[in-house]
Write a structure and sequence with these properties.
With about 300 residues, the chain is an alpha/beta fold. The chain contains 14 helices and 10 strands. Strands 7-6-8-5-9 form a 5-stranded mixed β-sheet. β1, α2 and β2 form a beta-alpha-beta unit. The protein is globular.
Length: about 300
């Protein structure tokens, strides 16, 4: 072999070795974990809590993709791998994703959602985080006192005629207007569709007298508003859980145990308060998440 050929072989071997080293390094590098959330202040704070907790327990950087749209956008993102996990609600999975009627029993709904997510989407629905976020109908406390109502059945039976405002999302959901119609509420005018952010201001101003919301909305910390109990249980149970890709749990053996540490640590009142601190007091979600973890003994 000539000296030139020998030098060429050495260089080629060096390039091949370097390529193999780079390939091995890339293969050994863990796949990013990306925490997502729907566009809701309470859910985004919960997602930030999850992300910070994972950074502490796994000792690695966790990416965020918060406030990224409605349920279907979040579900599509976790299904395709654009995000690794996000907070989701049991009843919303059954009614919104599976397009089924949800049972009134929260445990039945949880098991149905868990089984079908595992079977159809290779996703794992972990144990409940501890808070519920069902659909609620809200009125001004002064109107509730005047009409002498505490439940939706009370509102249906009374003489007070309601002006209902709902979000566009509520209008489109199969368990929205159709479910509420079970009560046959006496109405003063047709249902008004509004942007979700306009609902509480419209209620406060008297433009409507009843609105759709969710149990963790921060406005509900105010005594000016009152939830009318869904005494017929027409709205699906909504236990909050983490929906996570099964392949991520396999790739990162410590991930499941780290996420399990968050189960049962939340309450509806705590999430509602944090949502109020973000939306009404303009506090930093990351700072709220840090404080929550410290108070929960997870930091």
């Amino acid at each position: 072999m000539s000296a030139k050929s020998s030098r060429y072989s050495v260089l080629l071997a060096g390039f091949v070795l370097s390529g193999l080293i780079l390939l091995a390094s890339a293969c050994s590098r863990p796949k990013p974990i990306i925490v997502g959330s729907m566009s809701d202040s309470g859910q985004s704070v919960v997602a930030e809590i999850i992300a910070q907790h994972l950074e502490h327990t796994l000792d690695r950087k966790i990416a965020r993709r918060l406030n990224s749209g409605n349920q279907m956008l979040a579900y599509q993102s976790v299904s395709t791998g654009d995000i690794t996990l996000y907070p989701e609600f049991t009843g919303a999975i059954v009614t919104g994703i599976l397009k089924e009627t949800a049972d009134a029993n929260p445990e039945v709904v949880l098991e149905r959602a868990r089984t079908e997510m595992r079977r159809t989407a290779a996703l794992e629905l972990l144990d409940p985080l501890g808070f519920d976020n069902p659909t609620v109908l809200v009125v001004r406390a002064s109107d509730a006192a005047e009409a002498k109502v505490k439940t939706l059945s009370d509102a249906a039976a009374g003489k007070f005629r309601w002006k209902l405002g709902v979000s566009f999302d509520f209008q489109q959901r199969p368990n929205g207007i159709i479910a509420l119609n079970t009560y046959n509420l006496p109405m003063a005018e047709s249902v008004r569709g509004l942007d979700a952010n306009a609902l509480f201001p419209a209620l406060q101003a008297g433009e409507v007298t009843m609105i759709s919301s969710t149990a963790t909305d921060g406005h509900l910390t105010s005594p000016d508003f009152q939830i009318l109990a869904d005494d017929k249980h027409v709205f699906a149970p909504a236990q909050a859980c983490i929906l996570v890709r099964a392949d991520a749990l396999t790739a990162e053996p410590k991930l499941r145990a780290a996420l399990a540490e968050l189960s049962g640590k939340f309450t509806t009142e705590a999430v509602r308060k944090m949502a109020a601190q973000v939306d009404l007091d303009h506090m930093d979600p990351a700072a709220l998440a840090t404080a929550f973890l410290a108070q929960s003994g997870l930091k």
